[in-house]
Amino acid sequence: xxxxxxxxxxxxxxxxxxxxxxxxxxxxxxxxxxxxxxxxxxxxxxxxxxxxxxxxxxxxxxxxxxxxxxxxxxxxxxxxxxxxxxxxxxxxxxxxxxxxxxxxxxxxxxxxxxxxxxxxxxxxxxxxxxxxxxxxxxxxxxxxxxxxxxxxxxxxxxxxxxxxxxxxxxxxxxxxxxxxxxxxxxxxxxxxxxxxxxxxxxxxxxxxxxxxxxxxxxxxxxxxxxxxxxxxxxxxxxxxxxxxxxxxxxxxxxxxxxxxxxxxxxxxxxxxxxxxxxxxxxxxxxxxxxxxxxxxxxxxxxxxxxxxxxxxxxxxxxxxxxxxxxxxxxxxxxxxxxxxxxxxxxxxxxxxxxxxxxxxxxxxxxxxxxxxxxxxxxxxxxxxxxxxxxxxxxxxxxxxxxxxxxxxxxxxxxxxxxxxxxxxxxxxxxxxxxxxxxxxxxxxxxxxxxxxxxxxxxxxxxxxxxxxxxxxxxxxxxxxxxxxxxxxxxxxxxxxxxxxxxxxxxxxxxxxxxxxxxxxxxxxxxxxxxxxxxxxxxxxxxxxxxxxxxxxxxxxxxxxxxxxxxxxxxxxxxxxxxxxxxxxxxxxxxxxxxxxxxxxxxxxxxxxxxxxxxxxxxxxxxxxx
Length: 625
Fold this sequence. Notes:
Blueprint: H1 15-62, E1 74-78, E2 84-88, E3 95-103, E4 109-111, E5 115-116, E6 124-130, E7 133-139, H2 144-154, E8 159-165, E9 170-177, E10 186-188, H3 191-199, E11 203-205, E12 220-222, E13 230-233, E14 236-239, E15 243-254, E16 259-269, E17 289-293, E18 296-300, E19 323-329, E20 332-338, E21 347-352, H4 353-356, E22 362-370, E23 375-386, E24 393-395, E25 397-400, E26 405-409, E27 412-416, E28 420-421, E29 428-432, E30 440-446, H5 448-473, E31 475-477, E32 485-487, H6 494-508, E33 527-528, H7 536-539, E34 545-546, H8 548-557, H9 559-566, H10 580-592, H11 598-624
Antiparallel strand pairs: 1-30, 2-29, 3-26, 3-30, 4-9, 4-25, 5-9, 6-7, 6-10, 8-9, 11-24, 12-15, 13-14, 14-23, 15-22, 16-21, 16-23, 17-18, 19-20, 19-22, 26-27, 28-29, 31-32, 33-34
């Protein structure tokens, strides 16, 4: 660039040098702006990342108190899931129950006679009762498989129908109720339906089940040789002590759902035999003896007869036995029935035969037992009936009977129409799967795994925040004479150091629980910065550690107090107002609230400052250009 001579100026001016110096000055400003912009970007990023980590910590803290708290979560575990499984919800109470499944609930399933698979049926309107629900099926005609489809589609989820080919040319129609329970019977409702389903061989006229159980002298036989031991008066059997009598039935009785034995029984004390006073037998006196001494006769007493002593009678202890009847067949006694509450007045006892005998046997006789020594047992009004018998029509081929589920809960018999039972144990649903020979234990307890995971998550999120703050605020010597030190991007920031102190205080402070001073600190359940005697280098970072053994032991002993340690309603107003998780949640709101949070404000401020500096930077660029 040439040197210009300006009028009125005594010397020449080096314009190029002046411009170069100006450019150099502006370039330094641009470099400074670039450096400050980079620092602002780093600080904004740091605050933004911290805000995200604090949000995660806040969410973890919220999960540990209030309605989302895992401390009220329950779990149910069965000792044999193949027999009964269980699920528990929050309202369930920790307990152990013994369950024995006596009978699984089942639906009714009926089968037709073989049907020509190619036969075309005329249209028909079927009206059926399924339990207490009515089903209308409008069959437009067709083969048996099309009939099955129509029944399934038009039964509103109450019936399932399908076909099964039993030969190459014939099929069987199978109808089954969807619901289970003893009341879920399939019943044709009108004449057209009865006629059509009877033609298919699904239903037939009901057969009456009757057994002659009248008590008559000629039907009874004593089973104790040489002893009668009974009498019949006006249809009542009186069975003497230590007697056994058999009554034959006129037919075999099957063991199936619905077969019931009813019998009235009473007892009376045997009259004691009157004691007849025995005649006292005096000994027979014999004549006195004599002896002659020197012409003198001396009369004296010779020994009299011995007095017979009465031998005391040995009385046997009375026998009391409660096995009063038995079911038997030609092979012998199948099962004796124990009845303990028999009194002086007649009482009716009802027995489901299937609960007494296995399903593969039949009985044809009743044995009356009286092993008691002091009681006469009386029997009357014996009835054997089929409570499942239907009036009018019955299935021709009943493949599966509709029946309720029966099970014992701690010895108490329960009956329900379904295998899913949610109204017996509070907050627990039982799923019955099969009959059990022995009891299954169901343990309802707190879901310790879920609770532990929630606490571990809180500690992990807390440690992530502390480590992040340590990293962004650390000051480290570079080891170089002119390098000085390297400082974290947020080193010296009062806001972040104040946050760290507040968080650490929350984790170290005591909180009220039912156990008082015995359990008021996280350290007392194994959560601390380190065990007693730990080196400074191990604890200076401020992160927390969990002593797993101590934590598990504390949880076993004080589950309710540990819950209170994280969130507690101290004034019984149904609102959590104290605890570690509660305190964390509340203090973090002031930092990360999207409208008024401290960190939110700092992030927005950096954004505005960054925009301002960007504008200045653009001005400088324009000047340089």
